[in-house]
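Folding problem:
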Amino acid sequence: MFKKTSTTSGYRDPEVLVGLDLGTSKVTVVVAERDGPSGEAQIIGMGQAPSHGIRKGLIVHLDQAVRSVRQAVGDAENMVGLELNEATVSFSGGDVQSIRSKGMISLGRSPRTVMQLDIARVIEAAQADVTVPSTKIILHTIPVEYSLDGNSGIDDPLGMTGIRLDIDLESVIVPMATVQNVFNCVEKAGISVTGFAIKPLASALGAMTLEESSAGAVTVDIGGGTCGVAVFSDGRPKLLSVIPVGGDHITNDVASVLKIPINKAEEIKKEVNLAPGDQDDQNDVLEFDHMGKNYSYSNAELTEIVQCRMEELFTNLVRSEIANAGVSMLPAGLIITGGAARSMGVDQYLSRILDIPVRVSAPLDANRMPPGRNGPEYTCAAGIIRYALEQERDPYRYIEQSMDMIIDHTRAQIKKKLPGMTEEHEGNGGPKPRKNFFENILDLLKELFY
C-alpha cells in the first residue's frame, strides 16, 4: 500500500499510499500523502486510463489490460511527480461469495484477559467450518461481531476479561484464477501488489459515513460491467457481493431498442431524467444524425428503457442480496455510487420503487480530490486509501491472511512457464513475500516468551 523509495536499503516512505482500481470502464490510480505519521491521508493526485482487455470486471486480454494499467500509473506519476511502484489493488469479477461462520474457544476455567493469540484461535476455529474449493481462495476474513461470555455486540475483545470467546466471521471467497490474473496484470505493468480490496468493500468505505454504517445501510456501486453490493450494520460489513450487471447493459438496451450505435447510445443515455417530472418533457422528441442517417426518439421512450433495466437490477438482484445479508432494517437506506449514479433523478426513482431513503454519493474525500476526478465514479478509488488506513489502525478488521499464498502460487505458475527463471530474477521482479496474520502472531509470542 506504500510507495517504495528508490534507496538500496529497501526503506519505505510511510507518508505515501497508492491505490489502483481495476474497473471495466477505466483504470484509476490514486495517490495519497499522510498529514502526519498516524494522521489522515490527503489525496495529492489521481491518474486514469480507459480500460481495455477487461469485461464485466474480468481480465479477458492480459496485454491490453497491462497497457491500461501502465497508462493510468503514468498519468498519476505525471500529476504527483513521483515514481510509483507499489499499490493496493481493487477489483471485482462476477463470482464473489460471502460466507458467514461461527467459532468459539474457551479462555480457561477462571476469567482472564483476551490476548492476540486468543483472537487468532477463535478466527481459526470459525474458519474451520468454511469449505473452500481448491479453485477458490479466501480474499478477506472479516470479524463481524465478537461475544464474550454470551455478551454480544463486542467490536474488539482485546484486553477484556472472560472465560469464553465467540466470533461471527465473514469470509469473502473469490476464484483463485481471477486474483492471479489481476496480480499478473498489475505486476507486469511494473507495480508490486501489496494487498487486495474487493470492489464492493472499497466503494462502501469511500461512500458510506460512520453514522450510516452503524445504523445500517447498503452501498451499490454501479460500474460499467458489474455492480458491487455492500450491506453494513453496526459498523461492520454483513455481506459483500458482485452482480454481473452494470451501466454497459443499460447502454446495450438503449442501442438495441432504438437501433442506434453503441457509442451514440452511451451518449444519449446520459440525458435521461429518471425522476417523475413534467409530462410535457417526456413527450419531447430529440433528433440527431449519425453517419448520414437521421434518428429520433422521445424522452419517454428512452426513460422507459433505462427504468426497466434499473428496476430489474434493484428490485430483483440487489434486493435479493440484501435479503441474503440477513439484515432486517436499513435505517440509513441505499447509497448509490459509480458512473451510473450520475443519471439525473436516479435517487428519486429508486426511492419510489424501493420505498427506502436513497442518496447519490460522491467520495467522502471529494473535497481533497482533484477537480473533475472527484465524482461518484471515483468513489472506489478513494475507498482504497481508507481501506489501507483502516488495516493499519486495526489489523483485525480486514485480515488478508491469503496474500502469501496468492503470490507463491502465482510465482509457481510463472516458473512452470519459464523454467529458466532463477531465484535472483524472481527477487528483482517482485515484492518480498509478506508474513500472514497467524505467522505474525507466532512471531509475537516468540518475542514474549523466548
Q: What stands out?
A: The first helix runs from residue 62 to 80. Confidence is low (pLDDT under 50) at residues 1-14, 421-433. Residues 209-360 form a domain with the Nucleotidyltransferase; domain 5 fold (CATH 3.30.420.40).
